[in-house]
Amino acid sequence: MIYLSLAGIIFVAELFIKNYIEKNKKMNEEEEILGGKITLTRYHNKGAMLNFMEKNTKLVIFISGILLGNLLLLFGMVIPKKGNKVLKLALALLVGGAASNVFDRVNRGYVVDYFSFKWLKNVVFNIADLFIIVGSILTAICMFFRKEKL
């Protein structure tokens, strides 16, 4: 239950943050925080990662929905099993982040991205993206070292 709750918390928290950004930040307006290490900005990503396929948003929505559906199936298979705590955590991070971005794509027609790092200024992220990255890395590590089948 804790892993499902974590995914839900990620989804809801990100929804609040994105709504705040949409209401309170102008497009591409920059605000430096943490001594300039992070820049807050409002950006609409109509494509997949790094705006890939931005001209074909319906296909991006379809593929994202299929991937989220498969992720939810895997999550549902792993959660009831004993052990696999790191994999369960990884999948919770993935589900929460992916669900947030798919929700944006379906309801807004784009994903709200809102921060960049000083050392990677041209790439704008959201927190869901970070959860997807961390969840993906942890899942890959778990799969590499697994001893049993899912």
Number of strands: 4
Beta fraction: 15-25%
| Number of discrete helical segments | 4
Q: Share of helix among residues?
A: 55-70%
Give the overall pLDDT as a whole number. 89
Subcellular location: Cell membrane
Active site: 113, 129
GO molecular function: aspartic-type endopeptidase activity
Family: Belongs to the peptidase A8 family.
List the topology elements.
Blueprint: H1 2-24, E1 31-33, E2 38-45, H2 57-78, H3 85-108, E3 111-117, E4 120-125, H4 127-145
Antiparallel strand pairs: 1-2, 2-3, 3-4
Helix pairs in contact: 1-3, 2-3, 3-4
Description:
- With 150 residues, this protein is of the alpha+beta class.
- The protein has one domain.
- Helix content is 59%, strand content 16%.
- Strands 1-2-3-4 form a four-stranded antiparallel β-sheet.
- Strand 1 and strand 2 form a beta hairpin.
- The two termini are 19 Å apart.
- The relative contact order is 0.18.
- It is found in: Cell membrane.
- One of its GO terms (molecular function) is aspartic-type endopeptidase activity.
- Its main location: membrane.
- Pathway: Protein modification; lipoprotein biosynthesis (signal peptide cleavage).
Question: Which structural traits does this protein have?
Answer:
150 residues, globular, single chain
Give a concise summary:
InterPro entries: Peptidase_A8 (IPR001872). The protein is of the alpha+beta class.
